[in-house]
């Protein structure tokens, strides 16, 4: 049969138990027991402690009186040591009894607390440790050295060329034709990322795609970069058709390569599919283990847009903006050498975005806040007008309008 320790009292907690111990052992035995709801024990301890205290005080008074009479009246003394000893024994007994009660209260309080509950102070300490360790363990900053990056890419390309692993741009241009290639659709990402985390995620899948060519002027080998991004397992990369088709006058020897953010170079082996009207294509690179980006259709005007690209040779530039407009536009049809022939394409769905990009960004992913691709960098138009009387002068003011091929067009491949 269990004994009730308190009537109508709330379950004991650790704070009450600690207070009981402190009052019982450092102040008045029995008083802490009463605070903890142990009424019978508390009253007994308190009465015993008070009795002991009274007897000790009585012994002290008797001692003082006898000492006074002995000095003044030369009276004899009568031993009352027993009274002091009895009082001390009573108080010590009350103190020990209250100690037993305090320990019992502590055990009961511990049993009442949830097993997973941690003391408040310990929880705060653990939380501070976790927050501190999280701050210390944050992802390292990515710092790019453009010249060092180009040197690394050209050196790696030279080795691949020497080993006979590069495909010439001439042979790849001949593969640019309207066609399709089945790419396994990826599950869309739903969790929104903070911009620094989103940049890190896009960088895992964004490549520098361009020509490694021998300069006709200096005779040295250079790397001329545009952009592309991984969309499928096994090295399937999406970029613009004009990245493959563009020809530099006077260049006799050039090869198409792709490089990741570490400077690793992958030869472009073939063109899997292309749509010259929407200026988008899929190429195959000699790589495995690269992380593809999901393709998301249905972008809306006003939603955030982010771009990671290589404008003007400034590699892995991350910019932020929004989808400013959705539009359909007919472009001039380009032949296999990138020349116009007077024909127009079907109406192509484009996004106009305010995220900045420039030449060198062609083929780059334009993504939403979760890292899903909603478009691909295509071109830049200028909304300004040339000065009156000089149609050859550049527009003034210069207002760039940035066009991105919508993901719906990429999904047609």
Quick summary of this structure?
By secondary structure, the chain is α+β, with helices and mostly antiparallel strands. It has ten helices and 14 strands.
> Could you tell me the mean pLDDT?
86
Helical percentage: 25-40%
Beginning-to-end CA distance, first to last residue: 79 Å
Number of strand segments: 14
* Low confidence ranges: 1-9
Largest sheet: 6 strands, antiparallel, barrel
Order of SSEs: HHHHHHHHEEEHEEEEEEEEEEEH
Largest sheet: spatial strand order: 1-2-3-6-5-4
Q: What share of the residues does DSSP label as strand, in percent?
A: 15-25%
Number of helices: 10
Shape: rod-shaped
What class would the helix/strand composition place it in? alpha+beta
Estimated radius of gyration: 42 Å
Please tell me about this protein's structure.
Mean pLDDT is 86; it is low at 1-9. This protein has helices at 14-26, 31-35, 39-72, 81-112, 120-136, 146-162, 169-173, 195-203, 241-245, 407-410, and strands at residues 206-214, 221-232, 236-239, 254-259, 265-275, 280-285, 304-309, 317-329, 332-334, 340-344, 348-353, 365-367, 373-382, 400-406. Helix 1 runs antiparallel to helix 4 and helix 3 (39-72) packs antiparallel against helix 4 (81-112). It contains 10 helices and 14 strands. Strand 5 (265-275) and strand 6 form a beta hairpin. It has a 6-stranded antiparallel barrel. It starts with 13 loop residues before the first helix and ends with a helix. It is α+β, with helices and mostly antiparallel strands and 413 residues long.
């Amino acid at each position: 049969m269990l004994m009730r320790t308190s009537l109508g009292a709330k379950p004991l907690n650790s704070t009450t138990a600690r207070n009981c111990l402190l009052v019982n052992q450092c102040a008045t035995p029995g008083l802490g027991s009463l605070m903890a709801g142990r009424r019978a024990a508390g009253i007994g301890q308190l009465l015993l402690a008070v009795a002991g205290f009274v007897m000790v005080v009585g012994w002290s008074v008797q001692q003082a009186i006898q000492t006074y009479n002995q000095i003044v009246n030369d009276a004899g003394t009568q031993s009352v040591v027993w009274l002091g000893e009895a009082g001390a024994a009573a108080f010590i007994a009350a103190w020990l009894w209250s100690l037993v009660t305090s320990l019992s209260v502590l055990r009961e309080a511990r049993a009442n607390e949830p097993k997973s509950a941690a003391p408040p102070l310990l929880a705060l300490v653990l939380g501070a440790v976790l927050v501190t360790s999280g701050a210390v363990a944050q992802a390292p900053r990515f710092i790019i050295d453009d010249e060092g990056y180009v040197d690394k890419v050209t050196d790696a390309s030279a080795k691949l060329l020497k080993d006979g692993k590069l495909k010439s741009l001439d042979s790849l241009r001949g593969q640019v034709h309207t066609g399709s290639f089945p790419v396994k659709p990826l599950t869309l990402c739903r969790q929104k990322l903070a911009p620094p985390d989103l940049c890190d995620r896009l960088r895992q899948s964004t490549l520098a795609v361009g020509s490694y060519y021998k300069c006709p002027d200096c005779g040295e080998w250079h790397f001329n970069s545009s952009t592309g991004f991984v969309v499928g397992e096994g090295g399937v990369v999406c970029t613009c058709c004009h990245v493959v088709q563009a020809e530099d006058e006077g260049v006799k020897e050039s090869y198409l390569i792709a490089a990741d953010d570490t400077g690793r170079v992958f030869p472009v082996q073939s063109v899997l599919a292309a749509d010259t009207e929407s200026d988008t294509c899929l190429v195959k690179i000699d790589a495995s283990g690269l992380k593809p980006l999901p393709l998301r259709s249905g972008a809306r005007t006003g939603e955030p847009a982010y771009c990671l690209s290589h404008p003007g040779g400034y590699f892995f530039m991350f910019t932020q903006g929004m989808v400013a407009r959705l539009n359909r536009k007919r472009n001039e049809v380009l032949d296999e050498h990138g020349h116009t022939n007077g024909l127009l394409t079907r109406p192509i769905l484009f996004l106009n975005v305010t995220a900045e990009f420039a030449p060198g960004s062609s083929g780059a992913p334009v993504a939403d806040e979760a890292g899903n691709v909603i478009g691909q960098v295509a071109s830049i138009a200028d909304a300004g007008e040339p000065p009156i009387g000089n149609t050859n002068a550049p527009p003034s003011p210069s207002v760039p309008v940035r066009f991105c091929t919508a993901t719906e067009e990429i999904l047609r491949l």
